[in-house]
Write a structure and sequence with these properties.
This protein has helices spanning 3-9, 31-44, 66-76, 88-91, 95-108, 125-128, 131-158, 188-199, 204-213, 236-244, 288-299, 360-365, 377-397, 399-409, 418-447, 453-499, 509-515, and strands at 11-18, 50-56, 80-85, 112-115, 120-121, 171-174, 177-183, 252-253, 257-259, 267-269, 277-278, 320-322, 329-333, 355-359, 375-376, 516-521, 525-527, 530-532, 534-539, 543-544, 548-549. By secondary structure, it is an alpha+beta fold.
């Protein structure tokens, strides 16, 4: 059986793609016309077992497209023997990735590739030599189109037109003009209420709590469950975003982010002071004066020791989490009447003695969702400081013993016997070299007519399977060794870091950020009549080490 015949026993993938970048008025590029062209080509060339793979509305700049990924999976499963596209650009416009599929991936899986209008056929070497240059031209065209599309969006945005996806909460698209926003009669009053609360002096968390108490939903869609807490789950971050949004004063924000590159899916957030805002674009929910007043209230720092305020500086910001629900713990302060002298010593209490941490979920939604997990700031401070001091002392006393202790507490599935691993690696590599020699011998016998084509394909298929299996095992061994080496390196790094703080007497942000990843606060429980609370410290590089009880 010839190689060509074997290919045709598998199905032929007819891949179609179109996006907005290709131009909506180009009928020749339409999916229907691509399908027709590909079907005619396949049938004229005896490829009657074919299947369409269609990506409608997906850019060619990246290959994370559903139909394309499904086609790749089918190729890896051995279902596809040939891929046909209208032209090279339908496969993709990123010349590097397109080239890797055409030059490496398809040949590796014995898949023939044809681009009809570009005259590309992987069975014809001469025609393939010019393919990389065509891919570069497609990439350049894609970049040019992307720039033009972005320029068009920028122009419309600077004209005060809304070019985003979902309009901000409280606003909706004008049915007569999709680029113009109008007030949403259902949600605009909620935005007005939020601003009124802010003008009354309420902070973001107080506003969110008030809205939850009033059962004001955050969305039109309610989950089909009995638990509807998320339906009313206003958070401080959401409220802050609403209060900072210039759309509610009738203005238009041109861009909030900046794309790092044409092919990049990552964005830089534009600083608030550098954002371009177009005033008077649509009906406002609040006046510009009210909006500016709210900005001043948000930016204003609370006066020290006035009301319930406390000058405690939260060293543990972003580190303390509830062990039950996983939400961050929030700092709260005692009431004014309890912030005087210590009733036992008579000494004036420091700010840290007036602060405590409480679960964010409990604070927002109450005891039906989570418990308080309350812990005094002073207790947490002392607990963490003591733990760091003890670990640093152990590291200074006997670094090797400390290393063994840490390693034993880490997950050890990647720790391997280095000598045994090396023996297996050598054996597999030696066998793969033998198989390469056998391939050459079999090919020589086929060329001399000693072996039939059918016999040659059968023998080489078995050898290929064995070689692929060996290669996979070699890769696994390399990964195991790499992970083992990485674990050892991480433990050594942590020991080096902790030894720096052998004489530490107090905590600061530098110490905490260098050593600790997060701190998990457990629920207060009664054991033998005593209150016990588990505090789990997750260190950088090594994870949890001891169990601590407060």
């Amino acid at each position: 059986m010839s190689r060509k015949k074997q290919v045709y026993e598998k199905i032929t993938a007819l891949y179609c793609r179109i996006s907005l970048d290709d131009g909506g008025d180009n009928e020749s590029m339409s999916i229907s016309n691509q399908k027709l062209m590909l079907r005619d080509f396949a049938e004229k060339n005896g490829m009657f077992q074919y299947e369409y793979y269609v990506d409608d509305g997906y850019t060619g700049r990246n290959f994370n497209r559903p139909a394309f990924q499904r086609m790749i999976a089918d190729i890896e499963a051995g279902k596809i023997g040939c891929v046909v596209t209208k032209d090279l650009s339908r496969l993709g416009r990123n010349y590097i990735e397109a080239g890797s599929y055409i030059e490496i991936f398809f040949p590796k899986h014995n898949v023939r590739y044809i681009a009809i209008t570009d005259g590309v056929d992987s069975l014809t070497r001469q025609e393939m030599d010019i393919t990389p240059f065509k891919n570069i031209l497609n990439d350049m065209y894609s970049r040019d189109i992307s720039k033009k599309v972005l320029a068009g969006i920028t122009t419309r945005s600077r004209q005060g037109k809304f070019c985003g996806g979902t309009p901000p909460f409280g606003l909706m698209r004008d049915p007569e003009d999709k680029g113009h926003l109008i007030l949403d009669p259902e949600t605009a009053p909620i935005i007005r209420k939020i601003y009124d609360y802010a003008l009354d002096g309420m902070g973001c968390m107080r506003i969110s709590k008030r809205l939850m108490e009033e059962k004001i939903p955050i969305t039109h869609v309610k989950a089909n469950t009995e638990f509807d807490a998320n339906y009313y789950s206003w958070g401080g971050a959401r409220i802050s975003h609403i209060l900072r949004n210039p759309f509610y004063k009738g203005a238009h924000l041109v861009f909030r982010t900046h794309q790092k590159g044409i092919r990049s899916n990552t964005y830089d957030i534009i600083p608030r002071e550098d954002r371009e805002i177009i005033e008077g674009c649509h009906e406002a929910i609040v006046t510009p004066e009210e909006w500016e007043q709210v900005q001043e209230l948000i930016d204003r720092k609370p006066p020290i020791m006035k009301g319930n305020a406390c000058p405690f500086y939260n060293l543990f910001h972003g580190l303390v989490y509830c062990a039950t629900c996983g939400k961050s713990m929030q700092v709260r302060y005692e009431k004014v009447g309890r912030t005087g002298k210590n009733r036992f010593t008579g000494e004036m209490r420091e700010p840290i003695d007036k602060a405590y941490y409480i679960c964010q979920t409990y604070n927002r939604m109450g005891c039906k969702v989570c418990s308080s997990h309350k812990i005094e700031a002073r207790d947490l401070y002392n607990l963490v400081l003591k733990d760091i001091q003890e670990l640093a002392a152990q590291a200074m006393k006997d670094a090797d013993a400390f290393y063994q202790r840490l390693s034993s507490r880490m997950e050890r599935r990647y720790l391997v016997d280095a000598s045994q691993t090396e023996k297996e690696r050598q054996r597999l590599e030696s066998r793969n070299q033998e198989i390469d020699g056998m391939f050459l011998s079999l090919y020589t016998d086929k060329a001399k007519g000693i072996l039939t084509e059918q016999r040659f394909m059968k023998l080489t298929a078995a050898l290929e399977q064995e070689q692929e299996s060996n290669q996979k095992r070699l890769h696994d061994l390399a990964m195991m060794q790499s992970r083992a080496d990485a674990q050892e390196s991480e433990v050594r790094t942590f020991i080096k870091e902790i030894r720096r703080y052998a004489t530490i007497e107090e905590l600061d942000e530098a110490v905490l950020n260098r050593l600790i990843s997060r701190i998990l606060i457990g629920e207060v429980k009664k054991v033998d009549g005593q209150k016990v609370q588990e505090v789990r410290i997750v260190y950088n590089f090594v994870g949890e080490i001891p169990e601590i009880a407060a």
